[in-house]
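Input/output pair, single chain:
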Amino acid sequence: MTRETWATRAGFILAAVGSAVGLGNIWRFPWVTAENGGSAFLAVYLGVVLLVGVPGLLGEFVIGRRSGRNPVGALRDLGGSRSWGYVGLFSAVTALVLLSFYSVVGGWILRYAVETGLGLLTGGPAPYFAEPGAYFGGVESGLDAVAYHVLFLALTAGIVVGGVRKGIERATTVMMPAIAVFLVGLALWASTRAGAGEGYAFLLAFDLDTLRANFFDVLGPAAGQALFTLSLGAGTMVTYASYLGEDRSLPFDATTIAVLNTAVGVLAGLVVFPLMFAQGIDPSATGPGPGALFVGLAEAFATLPAGTLIATVFFLVVTLAALSSSISMLEIPVSILVDEAGVSRPVAVGGSVVVLVVTGSVLALRPPLFGVVAGPVVDFLLTAGLTVFLLFVGWVLGREATAEFRNGAGDLAASLADPWRLAVGVALPLFLLFTLLTSLGFSAWLTGLGLPASAGFWATVAAAAAVVALAAAGFRRGRAAS
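Output:
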């Protein structure tokens, strides 16, 4: 069976940007930013995207294009052992966990879009305008949440079953420009609202004192958000890059995707925060967690002129963004089943969706479990997954990775291949494991035992370094044995 490829370079970039530009930008980014200090969080987040996100994207791209396989086949073939294929299965598990909660949130958004649109057609207000908080409480769980979760999965499956060119590429080349146009229009309109300047200050003002005081508190959430929004750690970019030709510049593509994704995230913030502050709503006071955006924006829309129209456009944008990412997640288990088990694409899509209907329905009926999965579980899986990919690139592929990095790249980009390999083999895994241990409370635990804060910090660094050293040694032995 001939494996599909992208029809055009633009198609690949738009699909990859579509994978990155999703709920992480428009749903998760605003409430994580609000919970972690606004501009202080944004500064740390942008640094993580530049120093970790772009090299991480390149790492996954190198694995995918070098192998021309899904994550299981890629690690198995490049590592020279079936054991590496079992490591690649971690990506399938991560993708299923991600899409289990993601499709539930997609269902929420789809319901808001449908009911707001119906209000627009009938000339009445959206049903959540009266009591936004109470309305979201009825939306986030229960049988209705299950029904919309299943409907969202059906839309996702309908795109993925069409394949790479006729399904994913065709859909994202329409959705991504539409998302950009709608967001720019909403941001321009939001800028005209009285009080919008406070929203800009909350998001963009550089507060050095706050950054110094809260740097390590926001580092973990910033890293988790960067990995989530760039679709790193689950094997998405390995899968998408496996459909690439040999003449593409991977450094150029990775940088373009990271820049466009970050621009959309900031653009979403330029819509959300000015609207909230214009109506006197403090984003950090709307209640923590995934419902903050829905409740806070609903309050803003309810008091705005043409609020129903603006709300309809906004939730349409978010629905398109959610779909552009969900199709990339579904493609991971589908590509594994197609490539490794030899099943047809429709059967692979159907089987994956059946599993997701069950797992997502459990989360839709259990909000506390949903919160755990959407937060710390996802951050852990993505961090661990990306760490494995980076160590594989640095210590298993080695010189093959730098050769793939240079393939199709210009002279300037090619000169960065060796520093990049050092970074992905040592520095970035160390950073990722440090942030993971910090977010899990390791430093705080050591401090609680009586160690000074500085000693807890360095002990955390030492623990992360020890794990990286042991993992690198294990990866090298695995490569030698194969």
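The longest helix spans residues 82-122. The chain has one domain: 9-375+397-410.
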